[in-house]
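Thread: Newbie trying to understand structure tokens

Hi all, I'm a second-year student working on a class project, and my supervisor (Dr. K.) asked me to get a predicted structure for one chain before our next meeting. I've only ever worked with sequences, so writing a 3D structure as a token string is new to me. If someone could post the tokens and maybe explain what I'm looking at, I'd be very grateful. Here's the chain:
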Amino acid sequence: MTLENLGWDGRREEQFAPFRADGLEPGRVALEHTHIYRVVTPSEDVLARVAGRLRHEAASRKDFPAVGDWVALKSGSSGPTIHAVLPRTSQFLRKVAGRRAEEQVVAANVDTVFLVTGLDGDFNVRRIERYLILVWESGAQPMVVLNKADLADDLDRRIAETARVAAGTPVLVTSTKSGAGLDALSEHLEPGRTFAFLGSSGVGKSSIINRLAGHDLLKISEVRESDSRGRHTTSYRQLVVLPGGALVIDTPGMREIQLWDVDEGISEVFQDIAALAPGCRFRDCQHRTEPGCAVRAAIDAGELDAGRLENYLKLQDERRSLEARVDERALQEAKRLGKIQSKAIKRMQKDRGR
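---
Reply by user tm_fold:
Sure, no problem. This is what the structure looks like when written as tokens:
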């Protein structure tokens, strides 16, 4: 395994030059455990922890290594430590589950993302829209994969529904049971480039990767017949190398797709609504109850799906709510730092007065 096999190029070599001069070694994060990472290097796979300085300087979880990251490693008596994370070419950010206003990096430095959804009872075009926003915002290129074609009641209708929300994004149809469409998917896999599979539990992400690998590389489990939902067989993100040399990141199914800072992604996915907006009577039209709304007129004329606008408005509400909570967190952090600084000044004044 060489650095080039892992996706290394001249730009990364230039970025890494200062670390190499200090005796550090490059590696790529293949697996993330709690507080420890499996890092692939040209010589071996190692388990590494984050160095104290990097941990101290990290402003949020986003600053810690994620699967797909290139890192600078230093050997030591207590084992390898990660001293730096190289700049990312792409990163999948989502809000952590729950109420906390904090971002989480799902995967980094991915070239293409296969958004996998099942053509069974779990098919949902609104969820596809949310995943597309996540990918466009990341900087990677999306491709939609409609898996389980053998279970589709009306395949042509499902493909048409997906194409309408995909806004020009390629749509592939596969079946891991019959093998249909997998050859077409594998044609997109190039050696040295990184691909991620995103989707809900049970849609067949790991099964597709196993078929592409030619053996059971990843563990899989059956889905529930009652709702076509799968158990979280993949419990962590991991990077693997396929026989042809393509790098693949498998991810656990997401129970929640809470988006983070997705203005560009929303604009990309909802280009049809953005194109209609200039025709509204009011420049700041929210497309809700305002008179003269061109977007709602398009719905009345059958030119735009009402569910698509409903999802767009829901996403905008989520975005505004998140922004308010982030601002509140920033204010609380500023107050905390202010108190620390005030105490430090008082201690200095007290010491001088002795």
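A couple of things are worth pointing out once you decode it. Residues 60 and 102 are 8 Å apart (CA to CA). Residues 223-234 have pLDDT under 50 and may be disordered. Feel free to ask follow-ups in this thread.
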